[in-house]
Amino acid sequence: MSGPGPRTVLVTGGSGFLGSSVVRGLAAAGHRVVSGDLRLPDSPVDGVEHVVLDVTDAALVDRVVGEHGTEVVVHLASIVTPGKDSSRAKEYAVDVDGTRHVLDACLAHGVQRVVVSSSGAAYGYHPDNGAAHDGWLHEDDPLRGNEAFAYSHHKRLVEEMLADLRGTHPELEQVVLRIGTILGKSVDNQITALFERPRMLQIRGSDSPFVFIWDTDVVAIIERAVTSEATGAFNVAGTGAMSIPEIAESLGKPVLALPEGLLRVALAVGKRLGLTAYGPEQTIFLKHRPVLANDRLVEVFGYRPSKTSREAFEAWRTARGL
């Protein structure tokens, strides 16, 4: 598939935070857009066909992909922040089985291209992350998503599935986007909650750097991926990173640096008492966050994010009045 002409595009998770913006952007660009999600949106987008789509239902996914003459699938449906009633099995059913159902339907109905939202979490949280590149992770680094973290593990499994398909079904073009921490004017999630606490938490001896990407950049990259000549995996992050002390300085807040052992004990006790959903394994997440290099995004995919990591953070901080 090549050229910038209009396509028939199915967006899974089309009513979500990213999906709703992607759907509007693709429709505005002249594509025929089908938006699938668990519920129809309260405010449908003009010119977009909104359908009920549960990716855990293989037959329904097959029918929706087939009956709309889908040329490109933008697969965004996944569970990023589980609700209180969630379970590991439910998250696996959406993240992994759901992706398998989408890919099976793509192959069955001759879809030309699939754009998949993966995550930097697919690399996993390891002390030797990016060891070959001064701590920076590149697309050819191994994917070692930790089993202790459902989202990280599931993204790794999805990427392994995609890698197998590249060998057996090269006719299905793939663009796999390993997305960093998304910030935007209205972004409010478990990561941004860390920045709104009275003190920034840090494990002693670890910089715990973040890479940030502005939400409108993510949307623009997904839209571009629908018709781009480029295929393969791309880290999606602004240039540069910010350490916990740098973030604290920007916010005018102190840093609370704790020994890892002490924090593990506190989390273990807190989880046992029901005071926190996070167990002692969370220290790995805090200590070894994946730091994504965006060289391939800029040089091969041809997109330079409008904001660096620092500029994205400062724009978010200003928008939140912090």
Fold-level CATH name of the domain at 8-184 and 211-237 and 291-306: Rossmann fold
How many helix segments?
11
User: Which residues sit in consecutive blocks of at least 5 with pLDDT less than 50?
Assistant: none
What CATH architecture of the domain at 8-184 and 211-237 and 291-306 do you see? 3-Layer(aba) Sandwich
Largest sheet: spatial strand order: 3-2-1-4-5-6-10
Radius of gyration: 20 Å
Proportion of residues in β-strands: 15-25%
Fraction of residues in helix: 25-40%
Name of the level-1 CATH class of the domain at 8-184 and 211-237 and 291-306: Alpha Beta
Label the structural class.
alpha/beta
Oligomer: single chain
Distance between termini? 46 Å
CATH superfamily of the domain at 8-184 and 211-237 and 291-306: NAD(P)-binding Rossmann-like Domain
The largest sheet, given as strand count, sense and whether it forms a barrel, is:
7 strands, parallel
